[in-house]
């Protein structure tokens, strides 16, 4: 991987962290009209995000062992983008259905969080281990690369949390923000795929 490609991977990892925490934070706003905003509602949201990320880490690590490429990396972003869109389309009917069928808000919020966020967050969780695989070219530096990658990703998560909570929610409605996250993820995925395609074509031209 070239220096420019490595910088792109770090940037994409940063953006994925930003989007993950932004979506998690907005989860509270989505569930609040039906289940409230008490501590067990946030407990449900955080539990679902942590579990789905953990599955995503496993899947991303496994996928990265099979001919890892920047194109496949970009596809993860594209799939994540597609999986985020249903949150904006179906959150209301899903919330209404669960609210009317489950009386206990603890279990209702847990089921609602799972229905809305589990699959997109699993896909998003695949990004970090796949990023490490693309960045590591020397096994002796794998720990350093992983540490740097998780620093960048977590920094993105921190900024995503504070910018979403301090600014985005004051200026836009929830669906607009989530749609913007989906569009961002999809655009980044396309950028990765195009760059990899151009690089491959350039190599073939010089061969």
From TrEMBL:
The lineage of its organism: Bacteria, Pseudomonadati, Pseudomonadota, Gammaproteobacteria, Alteromonadales. InterPro entries: MFS_trans_sf. It comes from Pseudoalteromonas distincta. This is Fused MFS/spermidine synthase. Keywords: Membrane, Transmembrane, Transmembrane helix. It comes from the Bacteria. The chain crosses the membrane at residues 7-27, 39-61, 73-95, 107-128, 149-170, 176-199.
């Amino acid at each position: 991987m070239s220096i420019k490609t490595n910088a792109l991977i770090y940037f994409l990892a940063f953006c994925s962290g930003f989007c993950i925490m932004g979506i998690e934070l907005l989860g509270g706003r989505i569930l609040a009209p039906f289940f409230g905003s008490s501590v067990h509602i946030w407990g449900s949201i955080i539990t679902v995000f942590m579990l789905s990320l953990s599955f995503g880490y496993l899947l991303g690590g496994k996928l990265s062992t099979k001919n890892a490429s920047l194109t496949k990396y970009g596809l993860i972003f594209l799939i994540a983008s597609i999986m985020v869109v249903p949150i904006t389309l179906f959150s209301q009917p899903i919330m209404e259905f669960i609210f009317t069928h489950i009386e206990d808000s603890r279990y209702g919020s847990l089921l609602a969080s799972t229905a809305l966020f589990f699959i997109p967050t699993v896909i998003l969780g695949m990004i970090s281990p796949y990023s490490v695989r693309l960045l590591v070219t020397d096994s002796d530096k794998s720990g350093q690369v992983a540490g740097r990658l998780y620093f960048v990703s977590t920094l993105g998560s921190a900024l995503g949390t504070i910018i979403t909570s301090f600014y985005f929610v004051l200026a836009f409605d929830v669906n607009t923000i989530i749609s913007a996250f989906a569009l961002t993820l999809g655009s980044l995925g396309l950028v990765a795929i195009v760059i990899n395609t151009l690089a491959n074509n350039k190599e073939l031209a010089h061969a």
